[in-house]
Amino acid sequence: MPELPEVETARRRAARRLVGRRIVAVATVADPLVYAGTSPRRFAEALRARSVVAARRKGKHLWLELDRRPWPLFHLGMSGSFEFYRDGDERPRFWKVELAMEDGTRFGMGDPRRFGRIRLQQDPERERPIAGLGFDPLEGLPPVRGLRARLERRRAPVKATLLDQSLFAGVGNWIADEVLYQARLDPRRPASSLSAAEVGRLRARLLAIVRRAVGVGAEDERFPRGWLFHYRWGRDASARTAHGERIVHHTIGGRTTAWVPSRQR
Hints:
- This protein folds into 2 domains: 4-132, MutM-like, N-terminal (N-terminal domain of MutM-like DNA repair proteins); 144-259, Helicase, Ruva Protein, domain 3, CATH 1.10.8.50.
- Helix content is 25%, strand content 22%.
- The chain is built from 6 helices and 10 strands; from the N terminus they run H-E-H-E-E-E-E-E-E-E-H-H-H-H-E-E.
- The chain has helices spanning 4-17, 40-47, 144-151, 158-162, 173-183, 196-215; strands at 23-28, 52-58, 61-66, 71-75, 81-86, 95-101, 105-110, 117-121, 248-252, 255-259.
- Helix 3 packs across helix 6.
- The protein is elongated, with a radius of gyration of 20 Å.
Protein backbone atom coordinates (compact mmCIF):
# COMPACT_ATOMS: atom_id res chain seq x y z
CA MET A 1 0.00 0.00 0.00
CA PRO A 2 1.43 3.44 -0.90
CA GLU A 3 2.34 5.41 2.21
CA LEU A 4 3.82 8.82 2.92
CA PRO A 5 7.25 8.13 1.29
CA GLU A 6 5.72 7.08 -2.03
CA VAL A 7 3.40 10.09 -2.15
CA GLU A 8 6.13 12.55 -1.14
CA THR A 9 8.40 11.09 -3.83
CA ALA A 10 5.62 11.65 -6.38
CA ARG A 11 5.10 15.20 -5.10
CA ARG A 12 8.76 16.01 -5.60
CA ARG A 13 8.69 14.60 -9.11
CA ALA A 14 5.55 16.60 -9.85
CA ALA A 15 7.24 19.75 -8.59
CA ARG A 16 10.11 19.17 -11.02
CA ARG A 17 8.10 18.06 -14.03
CA LEU A 18 4.70 19.73 -13.82
CA VAL A 19 5.08 23.07 -12.01
CA GLY A 20 5.25 26.03 -14.37
CA ARG A 21 3.71 24.07 -17.24
CA ARG A 22 0.26 24.15 -18.81
CA ILE A 23 -2.11 21.20 -19.03
CA VAL A 24 -3.07 20.83 -22.68
CA ALA A 25 -5.23 17.69 -22.45
CA VAL A 26 -6.90 15.54 -19.81
CA ALA A 27 -7.95 11.94 -20.40
CA THR A 28 -10.26 10.21 -17.92
CA VAL A 29 -11.96 6.87 -17.36
CA ALA A 30 -15.65 6.62 -16.52
CA ASP A 31 -15.26 5.31 -12.98
CA PRO A 32 -17.82 6.76 -10.54
CA LEU A 33 -16.17 4.96 -7.61
CA VAL A 34 -12.72 6.53 -7.99
CA TYR A 35 -14.05 9.97 -8.96
CA ALA A 36 -15.52 11.24 -5.68
CA GLY A 37 -17.92 14.19 -5.69
CA THR A 38 -17.24 15.00 -9.31
CA SER A 39 -17.59 13.42 -12.73
CA PRO A 40 -14.69 12.54 -15.01
CA ARG A 41 -16.03 15.05 -17.55
CA ARG A 42 -16.21 17.90 -15.04
CA PHE A 43 -12.77 17.00 -13.74
CA ALA A 44 -11.26 17.21 -17.22
CA GLU A 45 -13.00 20.49 -18.01
CA ALA A 46 -11.73 22.08 -14.79
CA LEU A 47 -8.08 21.19 -15.51
CA ARG A 48 -7.79 21.68 -19.25
CA ALA A 49 -5.67 24.73 -20.24
CA ARG A 50 -4.75 25.45 -16.62
CA SER A 51 -1.15 25.95 -15.45
CA VAL A 52 0.34 24.10 -12.48
CA VAL A 53 1.57 26.51 -9.82
CA ALA A 54 2.61 24.06 -7.07
CA ALA A 55 2.51 20.40 -6.05
CA ARG A 56 1.42 19.86 -2.44
CA ARG A 57 0.97 16.93 -0.08
CA LYS A 58 -0.29 16.05 3.36
CA GLY A 59 -0.24 12.51 4.63
CA LYS A 60 -1.08 10.23 1.73
CA HIS A 61 -2.92 12.93 -0.24
CA LEU A 62 -1.39 14.88 -3.13
CA TRP A 63 -2.87 17.89 -4.86
CA LEU A 64 -1.90 20.32 -7.59
CA GLU A 65 -2.39 24.05 -7.16
CA LEU A 66 -3.47 25.54 -10.47
CA ASP A 67 -3.69 29.12 -11.70
CA ARG A 68 -7.45 28.87 -11.18
CA ARG A 69 -9.59 26.89 -8.76
CA PRO A 70 -10.84 24.21 -8.29
CA TRP A 71 -7.76 22.06 -7.77
CA PRO A 72 -7.30 18.29 -8.25
CA LEU A 73 -6.75 16.14 -5.16
CA PHE A 74 -5.53 12.54 -5.41
CA HIS A 75 -5.38 9.62 -2.97
CA LEU A 76 -3.85 6.31 -4.04
CA GLY A 77 -5.83 4.02 -1.75
CA MET A 78 -4.41 0.51 -1.37
CA SER A 79 -2.94 -0.13 -4.80
CA GLY A 80 -2.75 3.14 -6.72
CA SER A 81 0.37 4.67 -8.24
CA PHE A 82 1.49 7.90 -9.89
CA GLU A 83 3.45 7.66 -13.13
CA PHE A 84 5.40 10.23 -15.14
CA TYR A 85 6.13 9.49 -18.79
CA ARG A 86 6.29 11.10 -22.23
CA ASP A 87 4.09 11.47 -25.30
CA GLY A 88 3.92 8.14 -27.09
CA ASP A 89 4.67 6.05 -24.01
CA GLU A 90 2.17 3.47 -22.87
CA ARG A 91 -0.26 4.57 -20.18
CA PRO A 92 -0.02 2.88 -16.77
CA ARG A 93 -2.17 -0.21 -16.33
CA PHE A 94 -5.60 0.38 -14.81
CA TRP A 95 -5.21 4.11 -15.44
CA LYS A 96 -7.91 6.47 -14.18
CA VAL A 97 -6.63 9.87 -15.27
CA GLU A 98 -3.87 11.28 -17.47
CA LEU A 99 -2.68 14.88 -17.69
CA ALA A 100 -0.77 15.88 -20.84
CA MET A 101 1.53 18.86 -20.36
CA GLU A 102 2.63 21.35 -23.02
CA ASP A 103 6.22 20.01 -23.06
CA GLY A 104 5.20 16.39 -23.74
CA THR A 105 5.29 15.23 -20.12
CA ARG A 106 2.40 13.06 -19.06
CA PHE A 107 1.21 12.39 -15.52
CA GLY A 108 -1.03 9.41 -14.88
CA MET A 109 -2.68 7.69 -11.95
CA GLY A 110 -3.42 3.98 -12.02
CA ASP A 111 -5.49 2.03 -9.51
CA PRO A 112 -6.28 -1.66 -10.10
CA ARG A 113 -8.30 -2.17 -6.90
CA ARG A 114 -10.21 1.14 -7.16
CA PHE A 115 -9.74 2.20 -3.53
CA GLY A 116 -8.09 5.46 -4.62
CA ARG A 117 -9.98 8.72 -4.97
CA ILE A 118 -9.84 11.67 -7.36
CA ARG A 119 -11.52 14.88 -6.24
CA LEU A 120 -11.96 18.53 -7.24
CA GLN A 121 -11.81 20.99 -4.37
CA GLN A 122 -11.72 24.74 -3.94
CA ASP A 123 -9.32 24.66 -0.98
CA PRO A 124 -8.05 21.13 -0.16
CA GLU A 125 -6.29 22.09 3.09
CA ARG A 126 -9.55 23.39 4.56
CA GLU A 127 -11.82 20.67 3.25
CA ARG A 128 -12.12 17.02 4.17
CA PRO A 129 -10.41 14.65 4.04
CA ILE A 130 -7.25 16.77 4.51
CA ALA A 131 -8.83 19.05 7.11
CA GLY A 132 -9.33 16.01 9.33
CA LEU A 133 -5.71 14.84 9.21
CA GLY A 134 -3.27 15.04 12.08
CA PHE A 135 0.45 15.80 12.12
CA ASP A 136 2.49 14.99 9.05
CA PRO A 137 5.92 13.64 10.13
CA LEU A 138 7.76 15.56 7.40
CA GLU A 139 5.96 18.81 8.22
CA GLY A 140 6.58 18.53 11.94
CA LEU A 141 5.48 16.52 14.94
CA PRO A 142 4.79 18.13 18.32
CA PRO A 143 7.58 17.91 20.92
CA VAL A 144 7.68 14.88 23.18
CA ARG A 145 5.60 16.52 25.92
CA GLY A 146 2.86 17.55 23.50
CA LEU A 147 2.82 14.19 21.75
CA ARG A 148 2.66 12.32 25.04
CA ALA A 149 -0.29 14.47 26.14
CA ARG A 150 -2.17 13.36 23.04
CA LEU A 151 -1.22 9.70 23.44
CA GLU A 152 -2.28 9.71 27.09
CA ARG A 153 -5.87 10.11 25.89
CA ARG A 154 -5.64 7.05 23.62
CA ARG A 155 -6.58 3.69 25.10
CA ALA A 156 -6.22 1.84 21.81
CA PRO A 157 -3.08 -0.23 21.14
CA VAL A 158 -0.14 1.90 20.12
CA LYS A 159 -0.05 0.15 16.71
CA ALA A 160 -3.66 1.16 16.00
CA THR A 161 -2.93 4.68 17.27
CA LEU A 162 -0.02 5.09 14.85
CA LEU A 163 -2.38 4.20 12.00
CA ASP A 164 -4.94 6.81 13.07
CA GLN A 165 -4.71 9.44 10.34
CA SER A 166 -6.31 12.04 12.60
CA LEU A 167 -3.13 11.90 14.67
CA PHE A 168 -0.32 10.62 12.41
CA ALA A 169 -1.04 11.63 8.81
CA GLY A 170 0.62 9.40 6.25
CA VAL A 171 1.70 6.57 8.55
CA GLY A 172 0.69 3.19 7.16
CA ASN A 173 1.11 -0.41 8.20
CA TRP A 174 4.76 -1.04 7.40
CA ILE A 175 5.92 2.31 8.80
CA ALA A 176 4.04 1.66 12.06
CA ASP A 177 5.59 -1.80 12.40
CA GLU A 178 9.06 -0.43 11.64
CA VAL A 179 8.73 2.41 14.16
CA LEU A 180 7.63 0.07 16.95
CA TYR A 181 10.36 -2.44 16.13
CA GLN A 182 13.10 0.17 16.19
CA ALA A 183 11.64 1.91 19.26
CA ARG A 184 11.42 -1.49 21.04
CA LEU A 185 7.72 -1.11 21.84
CA ASP A 186 5.12 -3.87 22.03
CA PRO A 187 2.41 -2.95 19.48
CA ARG A 188 -0.32 -4.28 21.80
CA ARG A 189 0.35 -1.80 24.59
CA PRO A 190 -2.20 0.98 25.09
CA ALA A 191 -0.83 4.22 23.71
CA SER A 192 -1.68 5.83 27.05
CA SER A 193 0.80 3.53 28.83
CA LEU A 194 3.92 4.94 27.15
CA SER A 195 6.35 6.82 29.35
CA ALA A 196 7.93 10.08 28.28
CA ALA A 197 11.14 8.23 27.35
CA GLU A 198 9.18 5.74 25.24
CA VAL A 199 7.27 8.49 23.48
CA GLY A 200 10.61 10.12 22.78
CA ARG A 201 11.91 6.92 21.18
CA LEU A 202 8.75 6.51 19.12
CA ARG A 203 8.90 10.10 17.88
CA ALA A 204 12.61 9.91 17.03
CA ARG A 205 12.27 6.65 15.10
CA LEU A 206 9.20 7.84 13.22
CA LEU A 207 11.04 10.93 12.00
CA ALA A 208 14.18 8.98 11.11
CA ILE A 209 12.36 6.21 9.23
CA VAL A 210 10.18 8.55 7.18
CA ARG A 211 13.10 10.81 6.30
CA ARG A 212 15.28 7.87 5.27
CA ALA A 213 12.55 6.34 3.13
CA VAL A 214 11.86 9.66 1.41
CA GLY A 215 15.58 10.29 1.00
CA VAL A 216 15.98 7.16 -1.14
CA GLY A 217 12.91 7.97 -3.22
CA ALA A 218 10.79 5.27 -1.54
CA GLU A 219 12.89 2.59 -3.30
CA ASP A 220 12.53 -0.18 -0.76
CA GLU A 221 15.57 -2.09 -1.98
CA ARG A 222 17.62 0.87 -0.70
CA PHE A 223 16.17 0.70 2.81
CA PRO A 224 18.76 -0.42 5.40
CA ARG A 225 19.08 -4.21 5.49
CA GLY A 226 18.55 -4.24 9.24
CA TRP A 227 15.03 -2.84 8.91
CA LEU A 228 12.12 -5.11 9.80
CA PHE A 229 10.59 -4.09 6.45
CA HIS A 230 12.56 -6.68 4.51
CA TYR A 231 11.38 -9.61 6.65
CA ARG A 232 7.86 -8.69 7.85
CA TRP A 233 5.70 -9.75 4.91
CA GLY A 234 3.26 -12.65 5.04
CA ARG A 235 2.64 -14.79 8.09
CA ASP A 236 5.64 -17.09 7.85
CA ALA A 237 6.08 -18.77 11.24
CA SER A 238 9.80 -19.19 10.53
CA ALA A 239 10.41 -15.53 9.70
CA ARG A 240 13.48 -13.95 11.30
CA THR A 241 14.97 -10.47 11.30
CA ALA A 242 18.46 -9.72 10.00
CA HIS A 243 19.64 -10.33 13.56
CA GLY A 244 17.96 -13.74 13.80
CA GLU A 245 15.06 -12.54 15.99
CA ARG A 246 11.78 -14.44 15.60
CA ILE A 247 8.99 -12.42 13.97
CA VAL A 248 5.39 -13.09 14.95
CA HIS A 249 2.21 -11.84 13.33
CA HIS A 250 -0.95 -10.69 15.08
CA THR A 251 -4.01 -8.74 13.97
CA ILE A 252 -4.15 -5.43 15.83
CA GLY A 253 -6.67 -2.73 14.99
CA GLY A 254 -7.81 -4.83 12.04
CA ARG A 255 -4.36 -4.86 10.45
CA THR A 256 -1.71 -7.55 10.22
CA THR A 257 1.11 -6.61 12.57
CA ALA A 258 4.65 -8.01 12.44
CA TRP A 259 6.71 -7.66 15.60
CA VAL A 260 9.52 -9.21 17.63
CA PRO A 261 8.53 -10.22 21.21
CA SER A 262 12.14 -10.72 22.31
CA ARG A 263 12.86 -7.07 21.48
CA GLN A 264 9.61 -5.17 21.88
CA ARG A 265 8.27 -4.60 25.40
